[in-house]
Amino acid sequence: MSEVKSEQAIEKKSLIAQLEEEGDVAADYLEGLLDIADLDGDIDIDVENDRAALAIAGGKLGHLVGGRGEVLDSLQELTRLAVQTSLGERSRLMLDIDNFRADKKEELAQLAKETAEEVKSTGEAIKLRPMNAFERKVIHDTIQEIGLTSESEGEDPDRCVVVLPA
Questions:
Q1: pLDDT interval class at 114 (50, 70, 90)
Q2: Which of 21, 59, 67 is nearest to 40 (CA)?
């Protein structure tokens, strides 16, 4: 039994080392972009939920987020491609700028809680507005924690979450 736990610990360390390497490559790429654009920002690298997580803070970076996060989403995809090109592995890293995603996550979790309460009280399914993959995941995770179920329906960019009664 301890042999299995030992193997799992080694796999976990290996995964963390791989994710830290992804974070380093991504940080170098983002640092280069910030230099080219002559922008200041501090890059923080972390590992969350089995994925590399990078956050850029400081300076005037709001235009790197965009109105609804569309520029941030594009920068995240470009960074993932840079990591994939460098390491030869697909990356699932998450990028946040000026706490946009962190704030959005709190807002979406609150929406999920309010929607869950409404579904519980009415017994009717509720379809939410179209959301991107990040937003849908936050809703799904929160709904699951509450004990209800949800599913995505539709095609991007009109894909949305439906919260179902128990």
A1: very high
A2: 59
Under 8 Å between Cβ of 42 and 61: no
- CA–CA dist 129, 115 (Å, integer): 12
115/134 Cα distance (integer angstroms)? 18
- Which residue is listed with tokens 């329906």? 153
- The C-alpha atoms of residue 152 and residue 119 are separated, in whole angstroms, by 16
Length of the chain measured in residues: 166
The answer to whether residues 97 and 79 touch, using CB atoms and an 8 Å cutoff, is no
Whether 99 contacts 106, CB under 8 Å: no
What would the two tokens of residue 132 be?
């991107």
**Segment 118-145, tens digit of pLDDT:** 999 999 999 999 998 889 999 999 999 9
Distance, C-alpha 74 to centroid of its chain: 13
This prediction has a pTM of: 0.79
